[in-house]
Design brief:
alpha+beta; 8-stranded antiparallel barrel
Length: 176
């Protein structure tokens, strides 16, 4: 398990992975987010962080990502947490593999619990890795039909307006 923290203030020096906003930055969330950190469970949280303990479910990693889209998602109200996690992993991930040809890294993080009081309620955190910003804006889907298949599936298991996301770039290499 790992901890994912939305950094609202200071950026920690000891993050395993640190992502800072690029491009359009944060969308769907009014507060200013300075970055996203992937931390070990024993790493102290920086002041002002909103953090979650997650079960990491790597789907694939072809390497070479330079841009990440990190999405904090809420499940559809009619689904239990277990139904949400099952659908995301067993139904959505195979669709994403088929219809997102330029997606080089995909990690699903199932939120076990918030680590910080007052953290916004989320059920999952997606890490989507791309080689170039252009891939996100111009080549995200294999076709218009593939885009519609993904959108339709997302509406089945997510409360889209309740989530938020940011485009980010790794600020330093991950530590071993």
């Amino acid at each position: 398990m790992k901890v994912i923290a939305a950094l609202l203030g200071a950026i920690p020096d000891d993050a395993d992975e640190l992502y800072l906003p690029v491009g359009e930055g944060v969308t769907g969330r009014p507060e200013h987010v300075a970055g996203i950190a992937m931390l070990r469970q024993d790493t102290p949280l920086p002041s002002g962080a909103e953090a979650y303990l997650v079960e990491e479910r790597p789907q694939w990693d072809r390497g070479g990502e330079t841009i990440m889209r990190i999405s904090f998602v809420r499940r559809a109200a009619r689904l239990t947490r277990e139904e949400f996690a099952d659908h995301w992993t067993n139904v959505h991930a195979p669709l994403a593999r088929k219809h997102h040809p330029v997606l080089v890294r995909y990690v699903q993080n199932i939120v076990i619990e918030p680590v910080t009081p007052g953290a916004p309620e989320v059920d999952g955190i997606a890490e989507l890795g791309f080689r170039r910003l252009k891939d996100i804006h111009e080549r995200m889907y294999d076709s218009p039909a593939g885009a519609e298949i993904i959108r339709r599936d997302v509406r089945r298991f997510l409360d889209v307006p309740a989530g938020w996301r940011m485009l980010a770039q790794r600020s330093r290499p991950a530590r071993p």
